[in-house]
Amino acid sequence: MTVEFNSAKNGADLKYVFDQVIPLYIRSFGAFFAAVAYMDVLAEEEDELWKSSD
After folding, report:
1. pLDDT band for position 40 (cuts 50, 70, 90)
2. Buried b or exposed e, range 9-40, using 16+ CB within 10 angstroms
3. How many CB atoms lie within 10 A of CB 49?
4. pTM, entire model
5. How close are the terminal C-alpha atoms of the chain, in Å?
6. Radius of gyration of the chain (CA)
7. Which of UniProt's keywords are assigned here (predicted)?
8. Of 6-15, 17-26, 29-38, which range is least confident?
9. What's the confidence (pLDDT) of residue 25?
10. Which of 2, 12, 43, 46, CA to CA, is 20 to 30 A from 37?
11. Would you say the C-alpha torsion 23, 27, 32, 35 has a positive or negative sign?
């Protein structure tokens, strides 16, 4: 998911995006964000598994 921000079009500033928009997305899609947050850990563990199987 991407959030496009155009302050000229929306008349808002980055403070609004970080204070209002991003927290709303996180509350709405919290499980998705948690899953994505752990992907790096899973990828690192998979790399180690492949290295150990050689």
Report:
1. low
2. eeeeeeeeeeeeeeeeeeeeeeeeeeeeeeee
3. 9
4. 0.36
5. 36
6. 18
7. Membrane, Transmembrane, Transmembrane helix
8. 29-38
9. 75
10. 12
11. positive
Q: Which two tokens stand for residue 33?
A: 């964000």
Long-range contacts of 44-50 (CB under 8 A, 24+ apart): none
Amino acid at 54: D
Q: Which two tokens stand for residue 25?
A: 């997305």
pLDDT classification of 34: cutoffs 50, 70, 90:
low
